[in-house]
């Protein structure tokens, strides 16, 4: 190996920073640079970013707002170029427009700008020396926004619940938004989770017959974001089923900018944080997923078909048909001093049939939360990112927090009431076969101030670790070390990235890697070739009373005077 500092897992931990620090702080020997920023003209013909002269037409060709998930798709053996695929989850309208006084006062053009700033961005990137560069205007660059046509697939496609005035077939829908985390599939496409879709719809009253579902998905009483003023489908009174068409795992083939992305109904409808796929020993694709809401569940999808190496076209059909499960965790008691136990995947759809009494397959897949409620899964502390460690083949899920849990609701997997700091759960499948319906589990991290005896760092000495709060995304380097990003640090510190070895003498030695600027969440870490950490700096400057006239953050400090959510790269300054 070529010296400590070229390997990101060999860094010296950094100290927690106050939330107000408007800086990206990297470990000694590392530096950071922006890779692509909100407004960068990524699609050919896009105008240069101009904060005060933004238009919807420009934004639709520029890099979107509030980048979250970061994926890199590379051809096998190709280390110096690839396609960066990024979620643009939501917008901070108060930071995008001077004089903002609320969604109700936005002009139609401003509303269209926010709609065009949502979705996803695909950007060709290449590496020279240590540094990655975005290739603005490159052929494969693409924006996916709230108006991009998508196709539904899977058993609920075409069902009555998905039919609208604009689409009586129930098979074609415009756009995606609220895209939080995601994953690159083994066949080179990207999955992305539609998460907080409910807040985009104006719902004065739940439509007749869907009262329970609207309530369960947080749609009832939603005021929306004024989008209904430029597109009536965002008003439930105009189209009662449009909101049933969001909350899916979507799949994008970034290699073809003209391809129609798809929404996979077979994977259920939730506030999907994201999805990550592994190939089981028998060749079936298994996706693990979280539903990001207090007291909601973890899910797993097992494809009917089998993965065929090199046959992308076939593999792109795998997520259209299969079994859907929800997780139940049973503790083995606190006497052993560890939060752990056994678990079961409870089927919702099995062999093409509904396993939920009173629900058709389409109802299970569109009103998945209501269906899952019927089978007794474990109510978790907000399941965020769920991913499979490529080295030890175990599943890791960030359970970010749940301040609403009361003492009578504690269980071994969710062991704290008023849980402000969250935990990370590890799931081990029998013989690493994730198609199996039983598993064992353990909390490898119970977050918080390490001086708090309720915290746990996978057995490591608590006096030697970093504080951490509100884990959100998880990722792995080639050694199988767990990387964690945080969102909403409840210790009052800036959000950051952390690394924690999962085995060996440093098992549980959690250290802070890099810190986010004022108001920003750390998102989507991607460890590239163990030399670079790509990550999203999401919502810099997002604080109470934020305004473009006096922003608290000017990240990435490019002279525009405004915060610009960006994907950045962190790398060692010397090899
Ligand atoms: Fe968008 Fe679940 O964080
Ligand atoms: Ca135990
Ligand atoms: Ca997230
Ligand atoms: Ca989050």
From TrEMBL:
Q: Where is the signal peptide?
A: none
Q: Pfam families attached here?
A: PhoX
Q: Which InterPro entries match?
A: PhoX, TAT_signal
Name under which the protein is recorded: Phosphatase
Source species of the chain: Luteipulveratus mongoliensis
């Amino acid at each position: 190996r070529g010296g400590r500092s070229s390997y990101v897992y060999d860094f010296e931990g950094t100290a927690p920073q106050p939330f107000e620090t408007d800086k990206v702080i990297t470990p000694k020997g590392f530096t950071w640079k922006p890779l692509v920023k909100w407004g960068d003209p990524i699609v050919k013909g896009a105008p240069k970013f101009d904060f005060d002269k933004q238009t919807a037409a420009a934004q639709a060709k520029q890099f979107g707002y509030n980048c979250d998930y970061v994926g890199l798709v590379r051809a096998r053996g190709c280390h110096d170029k690839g396609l960066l695929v990024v979620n643009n989850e939501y917008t901070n309208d108060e930071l995008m427009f001077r004089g903002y006084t609320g969604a109700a006062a936005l002009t139609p053009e401003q509303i269209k700008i926010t709609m065009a700033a949502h979705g996803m961005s695909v950007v060709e990137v290449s590496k020279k020396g240590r540094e990655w560069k975005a290739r603005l205007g490159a052929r494969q660059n693409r924006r996916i926004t709230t108006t991009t046509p998508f196709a539904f697939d899977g058993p609920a496609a075409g069902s009555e619940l998905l039919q609208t005035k604009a689409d009586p077939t129930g098979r074609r829908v415009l756009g995606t938004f609220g895209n939080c985390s995601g994953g690159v599939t083994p066949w080179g496409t990207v999955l992305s989770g539609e998460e907080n879709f409910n807040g985009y719809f104006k719902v004065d009253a739940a439509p007749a017959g869907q009262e329970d579902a609207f309530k369960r998905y947080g749609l009832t009483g939603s005021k929306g974001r004024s989008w209904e003023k430029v597109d009536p489908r965002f008003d439930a009174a105009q189209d009662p089923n449009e909101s049933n068409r969001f909350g899916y795992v979507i799949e994008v083939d970034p290699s073809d900018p003209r391809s129609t992305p798809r929404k996979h109904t077979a994977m259920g409808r939730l506030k999907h944080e994201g999805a990550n796929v592994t190939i089981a020993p028998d060749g079936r694709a298994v996706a693990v997923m979280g539903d990001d809401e207090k007291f909601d569940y973890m899910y797993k999808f097992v494809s009917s078909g089998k993965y065929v190496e090199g046959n992308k076209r076939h593999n792109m059909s795998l997520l259209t048909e299969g079994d859907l499960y929800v997780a139940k965790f049973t503790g083995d008691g606190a006497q052993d001093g560890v939060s752990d136990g056994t678990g079961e995947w409870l089927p919702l759809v099995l062999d093409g049939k509904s396993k939920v009494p009173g629900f058709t397959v389409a109802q299970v897949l569109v009103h998945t939360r209501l269906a899952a409620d019927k089978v007794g899964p474990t109510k978790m502390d907000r399941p965020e990112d769920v991913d499979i460690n490529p080295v030890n083949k175990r599943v890791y899920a960030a359970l970010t927090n749940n301040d609403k849990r009361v003492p009578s609701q504690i269980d071994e997997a969710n062991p704290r009431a008023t849980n402000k700091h969250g935990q990370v759960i590890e799931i081990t499948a029998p013989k690493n076969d994730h198609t199996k319906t039983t598993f064992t589990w353990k909390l490898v991290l119970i977050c918080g101030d390490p001086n708090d005896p309720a915290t746990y760092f996978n057995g490591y000495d608590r006096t030697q670790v970093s504080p951490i709060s509100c884990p959100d995304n998880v990722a792995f380097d080639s050694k199988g070390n767990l990387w964690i990003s945080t969102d909403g640090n409840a210790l009052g510190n800036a959000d950051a990235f952390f690394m924690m070895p999962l085995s060996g003498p440093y098992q549980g030695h959690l250290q802070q890697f890099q810190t986010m600027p004022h108001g920003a969440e750390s998102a989507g870490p991607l460890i590239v070739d163990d030399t670079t950490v790509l990550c999203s700096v999401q919502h810099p400057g997002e604080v109470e009373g934020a305004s473009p006239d006096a922003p608290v953050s000017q990240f990435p400090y490019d002279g525009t005077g405004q915060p610009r959510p960006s994907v950045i790269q962190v790398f060692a300054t010397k090899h």
